[in-house]
Write a structure and sequence with these properties.
Layout: H1 8-15, H2 36-54, H3 64-109, H4 113-123, H5 126-130, H6 134-145, H7 158-173, H8 176-184, H9 188-214, H10 218-238
Length: about 240
């Protein structure tokens, strides 16, 4: 999940009055509901959950009643985990907002510029911090000190609720491509093969997307994700998941 950072409470403090504070000459970039890695992770999680059910399905003992029970189990499992994962996402957002407010308050109470620079450095990526000079850090400190007072406590923003909804939908909807063959194909054995093929393609797709995002050989990462996903499913099934 993408942490709001030190500017999050400053944004919240302006939400009551409409548009957020925008320093002269600055550009406010649109925020993503979920970062690419978060989307990939949620789809992968949903895939693993549904595969633990479809892969334990016995074709030899299959009848319409068993298929219906399997479909309901797969859909119910991912719906439940989608709700749980969305709630955990909201908890993480709430905690991150609270930590950001604490950093801003600590910044305002800092006795020396060096103490303030240390707080700013903790909120910035190490690579960015490594290229900032003393004068640049001091400029950032002065601009932060001139912004409105942060809110008294953390609260969930509209983007947080949208992110939780996105998490729920990604985990839940990733079930349907895998279970649809059992609804559309009458031959259970063929349906299972088609379902497994779709799951493998989706695993490859998540790995390919992850490889592109991480800048590491998308094709190789895609095939690696198929192997890793298969192992994760096997481990989950072995432990009764």
């Amino acid at each position: 999940m993408n942490a709001p950072g030190i500017s999050a409470p400053l944004k919240e403090s302006n939400s009551r009055g409409g548009a957020p504070h925008k320093p002269e000459g600055s550009i406010l970039l649109p925020q993503r509901v979920l970062e690419p890695i978060e989307r990939i992770s949620e789809v992968l999680f949903g895939l693993i959950m549904v595969l633990t059910i479809t892969c334990s399905f016995s074709v030899a003992e299959a009848d319409r009643k068993n298929i219906r029970a399997m479909l309901l189990g797969a859909l119910g499992c991912n719906l439940a985990w989608g709700i749980i994962d969305g709630f955990m996402y909201l908890m993480a957002c709430f905690s991150s907002h609270g930590q950001s407010i604490s950093k801003v308050r600590a910044l305002r109470k800092s006795r020396t510029p060096e103490d303030a620079h240390r707080i700013i450095g903790e909120a910035l990526p190490p690579l960015v911090m490594s290229v900032l000079s003393y004068a640049e850090l001091e400029s950032i400190r002065q601009k932060l000190m001139g912004l409105p007072q942060p809110p008294e406590g953390p609260k969930l923003a509209r983007e947080d609720w949208l992110g939780a909804l996105a998490v729920f939908l990604l985990v839940s909807l990733s079930t349907f491509p895998v279970v649809m063959p059992f609804i559309l194909v009458s031959d259970v054995r063929l349906a299972l093969r088609v379902s497994n093929g779709i799951a493998l393609l989706m695993l490859f797709g998540t790995g390919y997307a992850f490889g592109r995002y991480a800048g590491h050989r998308p094709l190789r990462t895609g095939f690696s994700m198929v192997l890793i996903g298969t192992c994760l499913v096997a481990i989950t099934m072995a432990f009764g998941g």
